Amino acid sequence: MTATSGNAYAEAADRSGALGTASEALPPFAFRPILAIAGVAAAVLFARADRYDYFGDELYFLAAGRRLAFGYVDQGPLIPLLARCADALVPDSLVVLRFPAILATVVAIVVAAATAREFGGGRAAQVTAALGYATCPFLVTQAATLSTFALDTTLTATLVWLLVRWNRIRDDRLLLAAAVVAAVDIQVKLLLPALLLGLGLGIALCGPRELLRRRALWLGALLVAGSALPGVLWQARHGWPQVAMGAVIRAEQQAATGGVPGLPLQLVLLVGLLGGILAAAGLWAWGRAATISRGLYSHRFVAVAVLCQLLFLLDTGSRPYYLAGLFPVLFAAGAVWLFDREIRWMPAAAMVSAVLSAAIVGTVLTLLPRPAGELRQPTDTQSQLSARLRLFGTSGWDRLAATVRDAYRELPPDERARTVIVTHTYWQASALDRTDLPAVYSPDRGFAYFGTPPETATTVLYVAPAAAETTLRRTFSGVRPVARLDDPLGFPGIDRKLTVWRCDRPARSWAETWPVLTTNVLDAGI
């Protein structure tokens, strides 16, 4: 197909509302192999759901769930709500807490296959797309903890699949369904506008422009706007902390993975072997009008959205997994294009890649997390901390709680009623919030918006690294250490490089003191 004939074909497709002709039927959905792949993935992920201890953000979501609001610093209310429900159903169950993340991960496998079918892919392409997602390392990350990206990834992929399907059959109920998905996604994370702008630009450049004339689209837009409004108002009332978080995330990525220069390697590590082949093939197919599959050509707006999301990632220097919601569509496009080539050795090559990818992911699932006893070197840099999180997870929460509890019990009984706990990080506060200690506060990130210590609080047990002493002495009338927690091989900020300070009466009121202490930086004291 030449570029000229391809353009003519695209115009005809936009007018007729179908890929090729309205009478073209898609291959049947490969239910049995796809459900088998999803079922195996679900069984494996549930079997290892409690192998990692609580991640710090999971403890924060539990704390946020006890303080439900329309908005939070850098996420919507849905994840805290799910955390609260999980803790109410089965308290302290890691499996129940992580159930939504595992379910979302398994659904993404099915969405990858369904998207391949919408592109015209047969059984082999559908199964390959599903295997691409089921064997990509990101699957392990997505299912490991309850997180915003665990749900956002699948919701994004589902939204794109609904738009692709609408582009084929022009059923406006799909646009309303897409709006519902988007409305839910905006309650998870406020990053959806970046994707919608990319999709909008793709539609404007490549079609189907008829979409812009559909009443259902604008009704859906109102639904999404209505869903976003409470969170936007919360952000406005609190000075747009989501915007301020951008620079913090960029700095964290720079320290942990090298920032933008390290992004290619991070993406390779997320997509894996088979996923990398499929993603590269999908981008190659969309970039070559002369060789593009008919099933992909009319969906070029998705390719534009992928490129826009990648540019957003490069410009902001944010998390590489912000692109993960488009992995299923990339895997699907690559699988369809590869099998459209009718290359004799393609099925065998796909099978070998799938087996190798499954072996890699299986090894990761089997060997991680490593026992804490295998730690040999202290964790002294952000990159080491990032590697430790992957290999060993977090540790030391019980030791942190026990140390602070002992310090509290040593206070004179008449002082305990006027004592509060304040922590250097929101992770520490979230861990202590689950104990029988008095009220816990932190000026760090999202926890800072949960409340300010009362003016009646004249004694503070402040959990912070030794380096915080200068700031504490400027803030309080009296400061002295009462306990230390510094295991050389401990987790920084949890059971290493921590001091419990007894601080007497702040020099100014808490209303004046709190804004000075507030920060968006998660400082582990490294």
Descriptive keywords:
526 residues; alpha/beta; five-stranded mixed sheet; 61% helix; 6% strand; globular; disordered N terminus
Question: What can you tell me about this protein's structure?
Answer:
With 526 residues, this protein is of the alpha/beta class. Helices cover 61% and strands 6% of the residues. The chain has helices at residues 3-16, 31-47, 56-65, 78-89, 94-118, 123-134, 137-144, 148-169, 173-185, 192-206, 215-237, 241-257, 263-286, 294-297, 300-316, 327-340, 346-367, 382-392, 397-409, 413-416, 426-432, 469-475, 510-517; strands spanning 419-423, 440-441, 459-464, 476-485, 498-506. A five-stranded mixed β-sheet has the order 2-1-3-5-4. Helix 2 runs antiparallel to helix 5 (94-118), helix 2 packs parallel to helix 6 and helix 5 (94-118) packs parallel to helix 16. The longest helix has 25 residues, at 94-118. The chain is globular and about 80 Å long.
Topology:
Elements: H1 3-16, H2 31-47, H3 56-65, H4 78-89, H5 94-118, H6 123-134, H7 137-144, H8 148-169, H9 173-185, H10 192-206, H11 215-237, H12 241-257, H13 263-286, H14 294-297, H15 300-316, H16 327-340, H17 346-367, H18 382-392, H19 397-409, H20 413-416, E1 419-423, H21 426-432, E2 440-441, E3 459-464, H22 469-475, E4 476-485, E5 498-506, H23 510-517
Parallel strand pairs: 1-2, 1-3
Antiparallel strand pairs: 3-5, 4-5
